[in-house]
Amino acid sequence: MRKLLPKKRFVQSDAYKKATKYNKTIYTEFGTRAHTDPSRGFFSRLVSSILPTDMTDNNFNNVIHVNGQLFAACETTLSLGVNLCCSHPVTDRDGSVYTLGVTFIPGFRYQVNRIPPAPAAANGKQAFAGAQRLLSMPSSWTTAYSYYHSFGVTDSYIVLLELPLLLVLSKVMTMVVKGLALKDCIEWHPEHRVKVHVLHKADGKLVKTKYITDVPFFQTHVCNAFEEDGTVMLDLITSEGPSVMEAYFLDKLREGKLYNEHTMRVTRLAIPVLEDLKTAPENVNLVGSDSTRAQAVRRGDTVTLSLDLFPEEGAEYPTINPAVRGRPYRYLYATGGFEQGPFRSAVGKLDTHSRTWQFWRGEEGTFPSEATFVARPGGGGAAEDAGVLLTALLGAGRRPDRLMVLDAGQMEPLACVEFQSRVPVMVHGTWVPTEITSEADGGEGK
Ligand SMILES: [Fe+2]
């Protein structure tokens, strides 16, 4: 018998330290407002209340690798000169890490940064050495910017979406004074659709063609992105509206309300890369691939994209074999979080070729976390689904919390580890395959 030793700790962020010291939130968080920081002088407090540049570092959403170091990430600051960074930086197969962020002053601008691969860094700052700004692009709305959570990266391109879920400048600039949380600064504008931007990964230059979707939608996670015959395929988790963001509010959880008005599903966009739009015919589908039902039609100076919705509602937290990230792939895995539909208590495997799902389902009332794919060791050249899925199966107080190890090929359990202590609600997970250092461990290998 082998032992598995669980450990858990709070991220020792400024936000956490100050909140526990003063028993109130000092920084503006997504769901909670900021309070006056007693440790700061009058003028410092005045400036920070007028200019929301002093953002939270409460990185609770994800754990990422950058050059041999582990970092916690969320829509917060991330040592790259941006005000808000996204939760899902993308690690390329060459070890480069791409991030998406936004700056507030002067005006809202999206920024894409690239952190080059480097020998294992000795500390956090070194991990970001050599970071370059690939893109700085103004928001399409001068008085707002689009909420973003993730973006797509292929071998040659990066794809950004501007959702009609807007953080409004007038609210952001006064949120501290008015006592607003970040969620109070967000407005859903379904009268707009989704603007899609494609840029070259090599130099950050934008593809000049304007792309817009035929319907509005909300998007959380990118499953994968890849190129096929001059078209970028972008697989996403989308829904008709943003109600899923409310599912994690404490009042709803405490009431046991596990219902979303808008359920999430796997969706594919097909984006033909057109440097010179005039060469493309109008009013015909520009997507030549038979691997998708998504269409792209040029009308005047814009290409309109229609969505290819895969079967089954409720899919969230997509994961893939990292070896196929940015490349054509077949399988993705998803769990449903608090969903009560087909993904209730389940981990699903989607065959994107046959468009069919295969499920492993836990007992009623259990909640699997994001499944993390771990490839079979030494499995070079093995099947894409040769490996295991790791998921924390929460028992919600009625059953022990467990770590499930599922065979990703057969979607059957291989092992189950029961924890005697409680495991907090988990969102994303990361597999650390080798010894790695973190500053929280004093630089000691774990
Ligand atoms: Fe996420």
TrEMBL record:
Named cofactor requirement(s): Fe(2+)
Comment on bound cofactor: Binds 1 Fe(2+) ion per subunit.
Record has Iron as a keyword: yes
UniProt name for this protein: Beta,beta-carotene 9',10'-oxygenase
GO molecular function, one term: carotenoid dioxygenase activity
Entry's Gene Ontology BP terms: carotene catabolic process
InterPro entries: Carotenoid_Oase (IPR004294)
Keyword Nucleotidyltransferase: no
Name of the coding gene: BCO2
